[in-house]
Design brief:
By secondary structure, the chain is of the alpha+beta class. The protein is 30% helix and 22% strand.
Length: 494
C-alpha cells in the first residue's frame, strides 16, 4: 500500500492544494479516485464522520440501463457510460455488482405506447439489447411473480444492482491510497476568491486550493449560489424504502419498475446484491435537507404501489424501513462544469437518479475538466486496484479453517444474522479511511444489517471499536456527531 501524501505547511502560510472536493458521497469520491490518476495535491472535505453518509447511503442501489433520461441530456450520456464502466470497476475495486436486468411493467394496453416510447428513447441513448415483450406467457417465464394484469414489459438486460456503500467506499479508499487526503467532520462554511484560487472556510480551519469541486449533494446549490450570480435551486426529494428479509430475496430476479410518471420511475421491487428484497422509493418533496425520517403515509404509499406490479409481496418480512434524499435540481439535469464568472469553481450538482449509475462517468468527466485546465500529468505510481474486506463465506472449508488458525478473529462471529466475524470488523477499522462508528462498520461489513437490526451485535462491535481505536465506550457513536449510544451507567462504581 502506498502511503497517502502529506504536505507540510510553511510557517505562517496555509497549504495550497491543487483541488479541494466538497463532499465524500459517491460523486465526490469517484471524482477523487479519477483525479488521483494524476500528479495532483487533492483533498476531500466532508461534514460527516465518514464517506457515504448522505444521498449515497440511502438509495435504490440500481445500475440503470439508461432508457429513462431525456435524449441528448447529460443524464442520458453519463448513465450509459457509467453503466458500461460498472462491471470492470467492480472487478478492479472489488465491490459487489450483479447485472441482473430490469423490467418496466405496463398494466394496460392503453399505456403500451409509453413502453414503446421508453424503448425508442433507450435506443437513441445507446442502450443495448432491449426488448419490448407483449406475450404474457413469455413475461411470466421471465418473472413469475409479476402481476397477472401485465400487458407488456420493457426488458433491459444491461441493468443491474450494486452495493452503494461498497461502491462509494471503494472509490474513496482507492483515492486515499493514491494520495488524496480526506478530512471528516469538516463542514464548509464559506468560499472566497483569492489570487490563484479559492479560500475555503470550515469549522476546522481555512483551506486553500487552485480549484474547488462542488459535490455537496443536496447542499450543492448553497455553495454554487455563494459564488455565482446565476442561482440554482435543489429540492430534497425524500424516498421511503422497505427492506425485506433474505427469505424474500428471490421473490423477483430482476429489478421491476412501473412506467415512469411525473415524479420519476415510481416504486420499484428489486433483489439486492446481498440477497434481500428492496421496495421503494416514494418521491416526496420537502424543505429540510436533513429530514430522513420515514412516515406512515409514505410507507403505506410505497407498499400500495409496489403491489400493483408484483403480486404476493411478502411484506410481513420487512426487517427495516429507511428514507433517503435525492438532490433534485429544478431543471432535472446534472450540472457539471466550471461556473460562469467563478473561475476555478467546478459544479458537480443536481446528482439525482441515475446518479449512482452515472457516478463513475461523472468522476471521469470532472477529472478530465481539471486535467485540461491544470495540464495534469499521469501519476506513474497510480494504483488502479483495491481489495475489499475478506468474506470468509467465499472460502472453501479448508481455506476458512486455515484462515482461522492463522487469524483466530475470523472464527469469532460478532453478527449472527449476517455471520460477520471479528476479523472482518478489524479489517473495516484498520483499512484506509477505516470505520469509526457503528454505521461505519455496518456499511463496510453488514454487521447490524440483518434480521435483528443490530440488536445482538451492537455492544460487541462497540467493544471492538473502543479497544482498537483507543476510545471510551461513552464516545462511540452510531453515525458520528451527537449520536452517542452509552450515556451513563446503571450502577455507580465503588
Amino acid at each position: 500500500m502506498r502511503p497517502a501524501l502529506y504536505f507540510r505547511r510553511r510557517k505562517g502560510k496555509k497549504t495550497m492544494y491543487d483541488v479541494i472536493i466538497i463532499g465524500a458521497g459517491v460523486a465526490g469520491s469517484c471524482s477523487a479516485r479519477e483525479l488521483s490518476r494524476y500528479q495532483v495535491r487533492a483533498c476531500v472535505l466532508e461534514k460527516e464522520e465518514d464517506v457515504c453518509c448522505g444521498t449515497s447511503k440511502a438509495n435504490s442501489a440500481i445500475v440503470h440501463a439508461g432508457y429513462d433520461a431525456a435524449e441528448g441530456s447529460l443524464m442520458a450520456k453519463l448513465n450509459v457510460q457509467g453503466n458500461e464502466m460498472m462491471g470492470e470497476l467492480s472487478k478492479e475495486l472489488d465491490f459487489p455488482f450483479n447485472r441482473c436486468g430490469s423490467l418496466v411493467v405496463c398494466l394496460d394496453e392503453e399505456s403500451l405506447p409509453g413502453l414503446q416510447a421508453l424503448y425508442d428513447r433507450g435506443v437513441k441513448n445507446g442502450v443495448k439489447d432491449m426488448q419490448v415483450i407483449l406475450d404474457k406467457d413469455a413475461i411470466h417465464r421471465l418473472e413469475p411473480n409479476l402481476s397477472d394484469e401485465v400487458a407488456g414489459v420493457l426488458y433491459a438486460p444491461t441493468a443491474g444492482i450494486v452495493c452503494p456503500f461498497n461502491l462509494n467506499i471503494a472509490m474513496a479508499e482507492n483515492a486515499n491510497e493514491n494520495g488524496v487526503e480526506f478530512k471528516f467532520n469538516t463542514e464548509v462554511q464559506g468560499l472566497k476568491k483569492i489570487p490563484g484560487g479559492w479560500e475555503v472556510s470550515t469549522n476546522n480551519g481555512v483551506f486553500q486550493a487552485r480549484y474547488v469541486v462542488n459535490a455537496a449533494g443536496v447542499y450543492a446549490d448553497k455553495f454554487h449560489n455563494m459564488v455565482s450570480e446565476k442561482k440554482i435551486h435543489i429540492t430534497p426529494r425524500r424516498g421511503d424504502y422497505c427492506l425485506l428479509d433474505k427469505k424474500a430475496g428471490s421473490h423477483v430476479k430482476h429489478t421491476v419498475f412501473a412506467l415512469p410518471g411525473k415524479y420519476g420511475k415510481g416504486v420499484l421491487v428489486s433483489p439486492t446484491v446481498h440477497g434481500n428484497l428492496l421496495v421503494g422509493p416514494t418521491a416526496i418533496d420537502i424543505e429540510d435537507k436533513e429530514s430522513t425520517a420515514t412516515t406512515r403515509e409514505g410507507l403505506d404509499e410505497l407498499i400500495g404501489k409496489a403491489g400493483l406490479n408484483v403480486k404476493d409481496l411478502p411484506m410481513r418480512q420487512v426487517i427495516t424501513s429507511f428514507a433517503g434524499l435525492r438532490a433534485h435540481e429544478d431543471g432535472h439535469e446534472f450540472i457539471i462544469g466550471e461556473v460562469e464568472g467563478a473561475d476555478g469553481f467546478i459544479d458537480c450538482a443536481g446528482i439525482e437518479s441515475p446518479g449512482l449509475t452515472s457516478a463513475p462517468a461523472i468522476g471521469k468527466m470532472v477529472a478530465d475538466i481539471l486535467r485540461e485546465k491544470m495540464d495534469l500529468q499521469p501519476d506513474p505510481d497510480f494504483i488502479g486496484t483495491r481489495k475489499g474486506i475478506l468474506n470468509p463465506e467465499d472460502l472453501t472449508l479448508e481455506e476458512r479453517n486455515a484462515l482461522i488458525k492463522e487469524k483466530p478473529a475470523y472464527g469469532n462471529i460478532i453478527c449472527r444474522c449476517e455471520m460477520v466475524t471479528e476479523g472482518e470488523i478489524l479489517d473495516a477499522i484498520h483499512r484506509p479511511l477505516g470505520a469509526r462508528s457503528l454505521d461505519g462498520v455496518k456499511r463496510r461489513t453488514r454487521a447490524g444489517m440483518g434480521r435483528c437490526q443490530a440488536g445482538f451485535c451492537s455492544p460487541r462491535t462497540m467493544e471492538i471499536l473502543a479497544r482498537e481505536c483507543g476510545m471510551s465506550m461513552f464516545d462511540i457513536t452510531k453515525s458520528g456527531g451527537d449520536s452517542k449510544l452509552v450515556v451513563g451507567t446503571n450502577k455507580d462504581r465503588i
